[in-house]
Amino acid sequence: MSAAGWIAIIIAIVAIIVIVLIVTMSGRRRREADRARAVEMRQKAEADALGAREHEAKAARADADAKQAEVDAERLRREAADRQEEAQAAQTRAAEQARRADEVDPDVRSGTAAPATARPGTAAPGTGAPPSTEAAPGVVGPDGVRREPGVS
After folding, report:
1. Which long-range contacts (C-beta less than 8 Å, at least 24 apart) are formed by 16-22?
2. What are 57-89's pLDDT values in tens digits?
3. How far apart are CA 66 and CA 72, in angstroms?
4. Residue 112 to residue 59: CA distance in whole angstroms
5. Strand partners, 147
6. What's the distance, CA 42 to chain centroid?
């Protein structure tokens, strides 16, 4: 073999070694880039999982708030019904007390005074009229003076 042949073989061997090194180094770079990309993807997956858990917790809180609102609404409905019953009972007691007062009042028995539902200072039911300040005959007026029929 001549010197030119040996030079050609050495250049070919060097070229092959350079190519192998370039391929090996680019493969390493690619693997490093893939590792870095995998780390980023894992971090993003963890962040997404955390966000999903936060959304799930918020949904659970909203559900609990809705259930609490339903409970509160039911409690308020029951309180309203109880208060309505109490108000009705108080009205019934007041009407009974007025009826008993009419039974005791001698003017009501004789028919010279108006019944308790038409006392001075009250409006006739359903009229919307303001209460009267004039005393009915035979009853005590707002000034504490008893008015008899026909007397001013």
Report:
1. none
2. 999 999 999 999 999 999 999 999 999 999 999
3. 10
4. 73
5. 139
6. 39
- Residue-wise pLDDT tens digits, 22-40: 888 888 888 899 999 999 9
pTM listed for this prediction: 0.41
The residue behind tokens 């039974």 is: 103
On the 0-12 / 13-18 / 19+ scale of CB atoms within 10 A, 113 is buried
CA distance 57 to 61: 6
Q: Maximum CA pair distance of the chain?
A: 160
> CB-based contacts of 136: which residues, under 8 Å, 6+ apart?
113, 114, 118, 119, 120, 147
Computed on alpha carbons and rounded to an integer, the radius of gyration of the chain in Å comes to 51
